[in-house]
Structures are given as structure tokens and as C-alpha cells.
Amino acid sequence: MRETGDVEEQVRLNCEISNANFWGIYSICGLLMRLRSLYRFEHSMKPWERIDSAGLMEWIGAKERLWQSLRGREIEPLRIGGRAIDAFDVAEVERHLPAKLCYGAGYATAMKPSFFLGELAERRVEQGFAVYVVERERVRDLLAVPAMQQGRRIYLRMQVFREYLWDKVEELRMGGASQALREAFAHCGVPEEQLRSGGEELAQAVERIAREESYTLIAHELGEALEDEFPEELWHELASRSPFLERLVRGLRDILADTHERGMLSAIVARQRIASLAFYVASLSGFRRELFPEVREAYEEAKRGRWGAVEEAARRARERVLGSIRTLQEITSSAGDRDELWLRRRVQKELLQPLGINL
Predict the structure, then answer these.
(1) What is the pTM of this model?
(2) Which of 5, 16, 15 lies closest to 98 in space, CA to CA?
(3) How far apart are CA 49 and CA 8, in angstroms?
(4) Rounded mean pLDDT, 224-235
(5) Average pLDDT over every residue of 220-230
(6) Do the Cβ atoms of 256 and 321 come closer than 8 Å?
(7) Given this model, what pLDDT does residue 359 score?
(8) Average pLDDT in the chain
């Protein structure tokens, strides 16, 4: 087997090839956010450390030149132990890695290839799925999500989850946080004064919250994996029609996963953990927020100990989403080769407007 460092460089190359070919799927704001996050990661910065603007601009310039040189290049197989292994054959790659390392590969939004290599802290089985808990990451691409499901595997990426929570801390500091987010930290025993102070004490609090809340990430992935109302092929077919439909379909699928009997909301209700529900409400945005308006009132009821309201809200949202997906199937089946503008108008008229959604 080749040295671990060499494998690391090969994974890093594939990350950069993916970035080079897919950076354009993000909005300018979204791309800048991901670049800042990747800069922090590559420079091993602590979450509260300020980014040097000049250094960031120089680094972005270097990335642009690198991506230009890699544009159009195909993802390469990993050469390990004298063999060329498909970069997406995760099980085979891991067979040739030290036990302490965890490798992940798959496709994300707009079929962007996504890879990471990190240090495995724990492997356990939950409801028939192998859960890989990854701590410090060594390599990643522009897209870094706290949890991901591939087949019968669920990856819980703790470093990414901590970074997500730090982003929420920064959101609060900048004054743009929702009341639910402020209450979520308060429910976790972290007052707003501590959130504004930063430093090691806050870092320890964020680490604790990440551990306490990680069960919700696993529950979401389980809900998505166990959801069987519609075949996997349907999701790909709908999402591939247009970027607009892909965002809508992802929102619909997320709500289905969260409201599944083994999904996130069921896990939260079983624990009656109000902090988890507050974080969930605060995390809803875009189509997900519009598709699940009753959860905010249910959260207020849960604060009074009325957890049945959350179960009822989940049931109503699930019925609505199932109906929406069937409507979407009817629209797309009659679309033929019509363009995205036609699709948007039909979806707006027949699906979104009846729900009171005007996006």
C-alpha cells in the first residue's frame, strides 16, 4: 500500500477537479461562503480567528488558477497498493486504508462529485446502518455537509458540524439570527453573552452541543434512507429537470425524511429535547420553511410541554408533501420537452400557490 500521505494527495486532487468543474453551480454569495470555509479548513484556523482579507484574496487567486488548469478533467481512480480503484468505490478504497482513516465519496447537488478523507473516531450500527463518526478531516472539497448517507452507510462529520454551529454563532453575533436560534443556544445552557465572548470556553460549549445534537443528523439520514413512498429513480428524474425543480425536490425530500416515523422529528419528540426542536426550526429556510409553516407554532406548544403538537404538525406536513410530490409527478409527466420557464409557471400555479407559497 502506498503511504497515507500519497492517498491524501490523490483525494485532494479529485476534490479540486470536482471544484474546478462545479464551482459555477453556486451563487456568488454561496461560493464566497464556501471559499471562506475551505480557507479556514486548509489553514487549520480556529473558528473565532479572523481571516486576513489579503491572504484570502491571494488564496482565492491561486485556487482560480488551479481550477482553470483542471477544468474538464475527469475524476481519477485512486492508485493504492498497485491497483487503480474507482474513486466512488468507497468500500474497496477503505479496504486499503489504515483503520484510523475514513473515506467518503458520492454525488451532491447538481451531481457534483464530493469527497473527504478524515480520522475515524467510532463505527457503530443503528437500525441496520453502519454509522461512521469522523472527527478531524484531512481533505475535503467545496461542499462539506455535517452528515451524509451512502447506501447502508451514514457518515457523521463532527468537524463540519462544529463549523456549522460556529456559523450560527456568527449569525447571532451579526444580528441576523432568528429567535428560535437564540433560544436553541439558551436551551443548551449557553447564554447570549457567552456566545458573544468567543474563545476556548465557547469552543468547549460548541463541542458539547455538537455531541448532544448529533443524534438529529443521524435521524435525518435514517429517515431519508428508510423513506419508501417513492422510488429513488423518481427523485433523480424530478431533480434533473431543472435547477428550480432540484431545489424544490430537495426541500420536499428533506421534509419527508424529517417527518418519517424514524426520522428527525420522531427522535426529537422521543427525547422531548426542546433545544433540538429549536435548532430544527431555526435551520428551516427556502422551500423547507415554506412547506412546513406549522412547525413554528408546534415549537411554541412544545415549550409548554405539549409535544403532541409536534407530532400533529409532522403528520400534516407529511400529508401535504406527499400530495405535492404527486402533483409534481403529474406536471413533469405532461411537460414533454418544454423549457424550465414553463415548468416554473405550472409548478407555481398548480403546486405552490394553492399552498400559499409565492417564491
Answers:
(1) 0.93
(2) 5
(3) 26
(4) 91
(5) 94
(6) yes
(7) 62
(8) 93
d(CA 288, CA 296): 12
358 vs 52, higher pLDDT: 52
| 3-state per-residue secondary structure call for the chain | CCCHHHHHHHHHHHHHHHHHHHHHHCCHHHHHHHHHHHHHHHCCCCCCCCCCHHHHHHHHHHHHHHHHHHCCCCCCCEEECCEEECCCCHHHHHHCCCCCEEEEEEECHHHCEEEEEEEEEEEEEECCEEEEEEEEEEEECCCCCCEEEECCEEEEEHHHHHHHHHHHHHHHHCCCCCHHHHHHHHHCCCCHHHHHHCHHHHHHHHHHHHHHHHHHHHHHHHHHHHCCCCCHHHHHHHHCCCHHHHHHHHHHHHHHHHHCCCCHHHHHHHHCCHHHHHHHHHHCCHHHHHHCCHHHHHHHHHHCCCCHHHHHHHHHHHHHHHHHHHHHHHHHHCCCCCCHHHHHHHHHHHHHHHHCCCC
Percent of the chain residues topping a pLDDT of 90: 77
Exposure letters 79-118 (e unless 16+ CB within 10 A, then b): ebeeeebebbebeebbebbeeebbbbbbebbeebbbbbbb
Q: What is the pLDDT of residues 188-205, one digit of tens each?
A: 999 888 888 777 889 999
Cα 337 from Cα 80, distance rounded (Å): 45
What are the cell numbers at 135? Answer: 472527527
